[in-house]
Amino acid sequence: MPSVEQLLKGSGLPPSESRILIAHALGVGRAALAAHPEREVGQARGAIESLFARRRAGEPVAYLTGEREFYGLAFKVSPAVLIPRPETELLLEFALSHARDGGRALELGTGSGAVAIALALQRPGVSVTACDVSGAALEVARTNAARHRAPVRFVKSDWFSGLAGERFDLILANPPYVASGDPHLDQGDLRFEPRSALDAGPSGLEQIGRIAREARHHLQRR
Prior knowledge:
The chain folds into two domains: about 5-55; about 80-215, 3-Layer(aba) Sandwich (Rossmann fold). It is built from nine helices and eight strands. The chain has helices spanning about 5-10, 15-25, 30-35, 45-55, 60-65, 90-100, 115-120, 135-150, 205-215, and strands at about 65-70, 75, 105-110, 125-130, 150-155, 170-175, 180, 200.
């Protein structure tokens, strides 16, 4: 049976990605792999080589492992949700700097729930609501909230459509902003992510414009 080191050399992938996939298949941490590169992979060889092949075909590592880290927390992800990016932590940092105890915060298009859940955990005095038009995405988000015991209220809603009459002190969104004809939609990891979370319309500004127009009816009056 081949060792971890041998599989790393023959994976055809960056070592960092190979280690993640091997660790996932073996059910061990990456530190354990680094400490024992001579370890034989045994019956996991087939699963590992299958993961390597799928990654070489372009599938995102996060979908292959079913998990992605965001703000120091592990979140379940699936092809039903956009993979949380490190730059999205800037949105969370903005929310943390503006959220006040006793206030209400809303995240639109929550996807995996990463931003809303991290906000609820960091600011327990804030009431957090998160919505998404996708029922499959909300299922993932609810699983993540339960995993981290985060008190987030989830609502199935196409932006504000399911929140009639409700007002919030803070509204967050990381909406689609890629134009429909942008060639990047058919390249790299984006090929596997939900198109509705990326494709905003002909100009790329359609969803941002809609949120901006409707948000004034849901922001708390000062």
